Amino acid sequence: MNTNELYGKLTALTKRTLPGYWGKRILSQLEYMNRVSYVQDRKWDGAILPVVEWLLARVDNEGAITERTALQAESMLAECGPAAKSYTLHCAAHAHLDMNFLWGWAETVSATLNTFRTMLDLLEEYSDYLFSHSQAAAYHIVEQYDPEMLEEIKARVQEGRWEVTASTWVEADKNMPSGESMARQLLYAKTYLSQLFGLDPDSLQIDFEPDTFGHSINVPEALNHAGVKYYYYCRGHNDNGHHLFRWESPSGRSVVAYKEPHWYDSRIEPEMALTVPEFCSRTNMTTMLKVYGVGDHGGGPTRRDIERIRDMQTWPIFPNIQFGTYQQFFALTERIADSLPVIREELNFIFTGCYSSESRIKLANRMSENMLGEAELFGSIASLFTSARYFGEELGDAWKKTCFNQFHDILPGSCVLETREHAMASFQEIMATAGSKKSYAIRKLAEQIDTSAYIIADEDVRESMSEGAGPGVGVHLFRMGASERGRGKTRIFHLFNSSVRAREELAEIVIWDWNGHIDSIQFQDSEGQSVPFQYIDRGFIEHWGHYFLRVLLKVNVPAIGYSTYVMTEKDGDMTRLSANDFYLAEQNLPPIEKYEFVLENAHLTARFDTQRFTITSLIDKHTNREYIDPANTAGVFRFIEEDTFNGGGNAWLVGRYRHVEPLIQWNLESCEIGEGFLRQSITIRTTFRSSKLKVIVSLDRDSCALNYKVECDWHEIGKKDQNTPQLNFYMPVKVDCKFFKYDVPFGTIDREGMEFDVPGNSFVAAIPTQRDVKRSVMLLTDSKYGFRSDGQAMAITLLRSSHSPDPYPEVGMHNFQFSVCLTDYTSTQEMLQESYHYQHPLEAVSVRPSRGVLPLVNSFVTLERGQVSIAAIKVAERSAPNRWIVRLYETEGEQTTVSLKFSEKVKNAYFVSIVEQKTDGVEISINGSNITFDVGASSLASICVEFDCD
Length: 950
What we know:
- By secondary structure, the protein is an alpha+beta fold.
- It is 26% helix and 30% strand.
- Strands 24-25-26-27-36-33-32-29-30 form a 9-stranded antiparallel beta sheet, with helices on one face.
- The longest helix is centred in the middle third of the chain and has 31 residues, at 417-447.
- The radius of gyration is 32 Å and the shape is elongated.
């Protein structure tokens, strides 16, 4: 038979059939059976064509397809029935609830409660109806605002008619949150839901992400590590065209992934059956999943949906239609799991604007992650070594707030003013919790450090006013905000390091109300050796009745530990002072006749254009390699106008660059250049359009990074009928490269250059094609996620005034930092460590001298061996302080042996999952205070370490 003949006549019948139930019913069955015949070698064409021809004749005679005609046609197709029913359409309900999308918190709560009320009512009315819902945060809303409803949901869960599909706190963004945030999404969701509903955590096996804007490459790694086996998503590229596949992380761990063939927010329509035969043929299954229910603003399945499913169950030439759950469908995939195609790549990219829109929310996310991690680390140490209280519940609540703000419309910035206000208010609560608990822990540790050698007998401190000065100062910079505790002329500072590596770098010290002479200040380390320092401020500055002076100090601090530095007054006659004693009272400008702006240390030389302050030369002094091509302007801030054509320029999409304007007219405010400075710097200002920009470019002694400290007073407004303004930083390099390295959750990824924005957790680095080039250029940020790399250039998207849905997303003052680094791109571990140090500065705390049991310099945890990066150290959930969780991941793509040294004897150590359940695996070797174990290539590992504190 000529298949075109069947197709043509079926098309003609469709066009000539008037709207109506019976016409729709028989046409849908004919279309479906035609698809069945197609995948079965046109086996049923001979049975279908006569019925189509007969119906065409009936339509010509009667003008419509009546009930009698449709039923007779179904009877004529009876021989096709078994083939039609050999397939099943598994209908799983849900109600997509966007958290604070285009509305505020109160509306999210209302939408959640009203949606769940509707679902409970339908479950009561229809005994065969089943409902599924994700997001632990939604159940937390019910628990908080309608506990009676929660009891109804619990009953339906126990009955098996309400499926909990949540394994994450919210349906979060999968690109910008850190790997540890990804772990916390899983940990807190599984822990909370298992306790709330009495479920086995292992039964929560589905990560349901219908609307998430892309999926990072290590998502399967984290899911596998948390006992999640299945992944449902809708948005996300999959160039291979597979809708059911095994998604494998670089380590080889995988999940079964289902990419929605239709749309997650859909209704029950007969057309849904048309893709079933092809799907089943391609996957070797006999069942296809159909996700249905009104969503985004909640709602869920309607009465019409349920009634239609019930009706279609009676259609004889149609697939079996059944109510079902996601778990039931995914269980069926296990039969063919080993034969599924394997995808080994990230499922990106979707919305390029979401990596930079609403930059305040993004800054809040990065700072929340950083501060919470430090609070847990130092809290764990303090609870073990000083018996201080560990605030696990409080920090967990703060983590849950952070996880909530990672929802796929909040962190990506595709939201409105009310969303941002709620996120930023929550951010303040997070930082208050994390900052206070971190401060508490560090103070408890500091109290136990023996500084009795610095006690000055009979010191007259009656005129001292320093104690308690500066309460809360530094919190706005996302630091601890601890008050001055020292007094007199001898001040003691402990520098705390949260990194697993020892650090030798500059640290900022704040001196309060010191009544000595400024030129007589000196610093010494714990061994009495003089320590170089540099004033930041030009004399003491008044602050709420006290006076402070900031100082840069060259310090050396051991891994996850502290060191001690002492400020004293030099001996000698200091009664006579001159202006020369205050070198910062004068500008350290180059000679008028020869303006040269060069920042240089032992590692690099950076030369700046004397008019435009762009980078004209960047030389690695170890190799004498030049990284700047004079033909390409480098290190330049650019004002960009994005085209708004076809949706561009909104929060979701970066528009075509229609106008690029380098900012090259700067005013020089100050500069401090020369070998005598610990930190050399150039401070410049400019105005453009309606905005102002101040930049301090600095180079620290022994550093390989040019740091850019930026203050931008931004007043650009995007207009849909005009353009979207953007500020970015552009850095072309003299390096031949095809690929660029980005840090992503639990690792890194190499991507080809692309002329659009892509996400990175904190950096992008050029990967040279020349094998003899061992170092390259990296752009490293403290709070930005959107990068662009193509050809030989990299760029950071700093600010974007998208025109919708929030018409004024960025107006006001912005403070952020980024750096241009020379880095060893061949060592991912080193790059990740550089990023960690950049985002986790050393923390200084002042103390009074006292007796204690801890030494002046100490390390609590040291990574002695292994190519890994530490993601977290915390006390195990609801546990004694002598049980720690250490989470880490391999960085170089090859198996590594890890050795960790603790300052307390280890009693036991074993591998656990993300939800902190013991897992099967090789034993961990214990030798006193050391543990040794292997970590697979690109693998994530969590270890429970139990200390012997008897």
